[in-house]
Design a protein that fits this description.
Number of strands of chain A: 10
Number of helices of chain B: 19
Structural class of chain A: alpha/beta
Radius of gyration of chain B: 24 Å
Helix content of chain B: over 70%
Distance between the termini of chain B: 41 Å
Radius of gyration of chain A: 19 Å
Order of helices and strands of chain A: EEEHEEHEHHHEHEHEEHHH
Shape of chain B: globular
Largest interface: A-B, 45 and 40 residues
Number of helices of chain A: 10
Oligomer: heterodimer
Order of helices and strands of chain B: HHHHHHHHHHHHHHHHHHH
Structural class of chain B: mainly alpha
Distance between the termini of chain A: 40 Å
Strand content of chain B: under 5%
Helix content of chain A: 40-55%
Number of strands of chain B: 0
Shape of chain A: globular
Largest sheet of chain B: none
């Protein structure tokens, strides 16, 4: 399927390392949607997102971003996607301005436009007092903000974030969340993995639950509640879904249950 | 470990285990199955080194080793060349003991004594320095034992004493720098001092040889009667290490006692301030360096230009780069000096310069290529950018090539004054050597943090050996071509190509950056 109205369409995605990590995954995210991908440790979330970002090659299946097949035309896909990992991809010996100039250059953004955007982003993210200091001595929160500014400086249509709030203080986390919500309001699609279920509950329009490399549930919070059959928190729903999957896959657990 | 926790033997066992595992990982490239191959390679390398040593030492021993002033001058001078390398190595290790964080934060935040840790780490520095000295000197010492007798065995404890002196001096220099220059500048200055000490003495001797005797041999000075005449008399204590190496037990005792007491005294003196200095050094990484003020101006650049400029900025700001490349750059000084002095002479003398230039350029290119190609701190960012992997690699290689070109050009220009032909030969083989080293780094690329530069051999020992061998073989080919020995040049040239082919066939092919 090559649907430009969908920000992301994944079909039959499969990837193994020493064991299968992603198994025949089908997933779609609409344009302008805030989508949260949840799952226990080792479920395959990061592997999925790294394949979407072009950091890993799938063994089977297709990925299309706004109708662009990431395997057939990787550069076109990359030009509209931004990837933010849990470990900020920042050079210790460049300043935030120098970093943003570099990123804008990689995405072929006009220098004048990039400069204006960088200045705005640096102000917006509260980095102005440190904009001319090398990133080497920055805290994790500041590095994450620099990385986020790098992701936004080329004005992507799809932002993929892997655990962006890990290690951030309350103030920085709030700022990052606000930036993402503002971007979604502007029509940008955001896909994020997180272990902070409260964040997913509050921010995401739709939530996908991954376990053992498969999508075990997907929908709005209300749809997920309906699925488990009671009015409860996302945490309870998540634990129910993951436990159910464990019982389905592990005969020993199923026998005990 | 059965030692009392946090005691000195406990720390020593802990450090030794880490070192052992690191060493094995470095040698085998993380593949335990390569241990057998490693042993075979080491045996062959040792045999070759002993054969080479035999070729140098056997004629000297055949004429009879007499303990006179010229012999003592020659042994002391040669030992001093080795000792400067030991001091350089110690200085770098000691600096790392203060600045490398890894487990230091854990240990300094624990109730364990930082004094004991320092004593252990300094002791290990002395041992590793001794191992380096043994690696370099053992072929010659072993050949001397075979040809001249077992009394040469005493050269090994003499080396141990020299390594203790080198380590003690390295600690004192580092402490002095902390006092004089402060923790912020100590690392940089220590690297420069290490490079100058490591290469400076060799270069100085060569410079004297070039200026005074008109040749590149370091040993010309040590056998000059005028120079020998200026040296202290035969019974001076200055010759104690040389006498020890020659088998004099009393001189050995003096040397060993001097080395051991100097090291023990230095450890006692420095260990009390180790924790304080290490914490001060830790504060450096948390300090933020501010760039120039003024209006920010983004320059319009292509993707490749952005990549190249980024590489140049990072190279210029790399705190460890200096110690890793300065020595290679220093080694270009004597050839340049030689060219300058020999200006207008027959082109034949220039043949001496060519291999040094070709080798230095190969080694420099290998180090810089690793930094640019494998040492990519924002690997994910570059891979997710809309730039083809080929364009990224091309830009990085161009960035490295430009730096190498800037270093090489003055030498080639100097050579042009004497002979277009030799200048062209040097330029061509330097380019080939540089290209070979870069290609090897390209085949063995593994994304790592730039801070891992010193430990890049961990990624692959094969690439390190191949890089060194190709530089040596291309240097040999260049000098033979320059000497119109084209048919013989085919031999080292073929070996260089075979080295590259073997490296390529052993590399993890098809890996994407």
């Amino acid at each position: 399927m090559s649907d430009p109205s969908h920000a992301l369409v994944i079909e039959g995605l499969t990837k193994s390392f020493d064991r299968p990590v992603v198994k025949d995954l089908h997933l779609s995210v609409k344009g302008g949607e805030f989508y949260a991908l949840l799952g226990p440790n080792g479920a395959g979330k990061t592997t999925i997102l790294r394949m979407v970002a072009g950091l890993l090659q799938p063994e089977a299946g297709t990925i299309s971003v706004f109708g662009v097949d990431t395997r057939k035309d990787p550069l076109a896909a990359k030009s509209i996607v931004a990837w933010v990992s849990d470990e900020p991809m920042v050079y210790d010996r460049l300043t935030p301005y120098e970093y943003l100039e570099f990123v804008a250059g990689l995405w072929r953004i006009d220098a004048r436009q990039a400069q204006q955007r960088a200045t705005e982003l640096i102000e917006w993210l509260g980095l102005a007092p440190h904009a001319r200091q090398r990133c080497g001595g920055f805290s994790k929160g500041m590095l994450q903000k620099v990385a986020l500014a790098g992701a936004l400086v080329h004005d992507p249509r799809l932002i993929i974030l892997d655990e962006p709030l890990t290690g951030l203080d309350a103030g920085s986390a709030r700022q990052v969340k606000q930036v993402l919500l503002d971007k979604v309001k502007q029509g940008v699609t955001v896909i994020m993995t997180t272990h902070i279920l409260e964040v997913a509950e509050r921010m995401a329009e739709r939530i996908g639950v991954i376990n053992h490399g498969r999508l075990v549930a997907e929908g709005t919070l209300a749809e997920l509640r309906a699925r488990v059959g009671r009015e409860t928190t996302l945490e309870e729903i998540f634990l129910d879904l993951v436990a159910q999957k464990e019982m389905d896959t592990d005969p020993a657990v199923a026998a005990v249950a | 470990m059965s030692f009392a926790p946090a005691s000195m033997p406990w720390f020593a066992a802990h450090e030794w285990r880490l070192m052992w595992r690191d060493g094995i990982a470095m040698m085998t490239g993380g593949h335990p199955t390569r241990r057998v191959a490693l042993v075979v390679i080491l045996v062959i390398a040792a045999a070759l080194m002993h054969l080479m040593a035999n070729a140098i030492v056997a004629p000297w021993v055949a004429s009879g080793v007499i303990i006179d002033k010229p012999t003592l001058v020659l042994i002391t001078g040669t030992g001093l060349l080795l000792w400067t390398v030991m001091l350089s190595q110690s200085l770098e290790s000691v600096t790392r003991a203060y600045y490398s964080r890894s487990d230091l934060d854990l240990i300094l935040s624990s109730p364990a004594s930082s004094r004991q840790l320092f004593a252990v780490r300094t002791g290990i520095t002395a041992v590793t320095t001794l191992l380096l000295a043994c690696l370099l000197a053992s072929p010659i010492v072993d050949v001397l034992i075979i040809h001249d007798g077992a009394h040469w065995l005493l050269a090994y404890p003499a080396l141990a004493a020299l390594s203790a002196i080198a380590t003690a001096l390295a600690v004192l220099i580092t402490l002095g720098l902390f006092r004089v220059a402060g923790p912020k500048r100590t690392r940089l200055i220590a690297q420069i001092v290490a490079a100058i000490v490591g290469a400076g003495f060799v270069i100085g001797i060569q410079a004297v040889a070039i200026l005074h005797f008109g040749n590149m041999s370091r040993f010309a000075l040590f056998s000059d009667p005028e120079f020998i005449g200026w040296m202290p008399e035969i019974d001076s204590i200055v010759w104690a290490p040389a006498r020890a190496a020659l088998g004099d037990v009393t001189s050995l005792a003096v040397t060993v006692v001097l080395g051991a007491s100097l090291l023990a005294g230095t450890i006692t003196l420095a260990s009390s301030s180790y924790g304080r200095h290490a914490i001060a050094a830790a504060g450096i990484s948390a300090q933020r360096q501010t760039q120039q003020r003024g209006r920010v101006l983004f320059r319009p650049r292509s993707q490749k230009q952005q990549l190249r400029v980024k590489e140049w900025k990072l190279l210029a700001r790399d705190p460890w780069l200096l110690s890793q490349t300065l020595m290679q750059v220093f080694y270009l000084v004597p050839p340049a000096l030689y060219l300058w002095i020999s200006y207008g002479q027959t082109a034949g003398t220039y043949v001496v310069v060519i291999p040094v230039v070709v080798m230095a350029v190969g080694q420099l290119s290998g180090g810089l290529s690793w930094l640019a190609i494998s040492g990519e701190d924002a690997h994910d960012l570059v891979v997710t950018a809309p730039v083809s992997p080929q364009a990224v690699l091309q830009a990085k290689i161009e960035a490295v090539a430009t730096v190498v070109l800037v270093m090489l050009t003055p030498i080639i220009v100097l050579m042009l004054f004497a002979s277009y032909e030799l200048a062209a030969t040097t330029a061509v083989f330097a380019a080939i050597s540089s290209g070979s080293a870069t290609a090897i780094q390209l085949w063995f690329r593994v994304p790592m943090r730039r801070a891992m530069f010193r430990r890049r051999q961990v990624a692959s020992r094969v690439s390190t050996i191949a890089e060194a061998l190709s530089s040596i073989f291309w240097a040999g080919t260049a000098v033979l071509v320059a000497g119109d020995q084209d048919w013989i040049a085919v031999f080292p040239g073929t070996l260089a190509v075979v080295t590259l082919f073997v490296a390529w066939s052993l590399s993890p092919k098809g890996k994407q950056v």
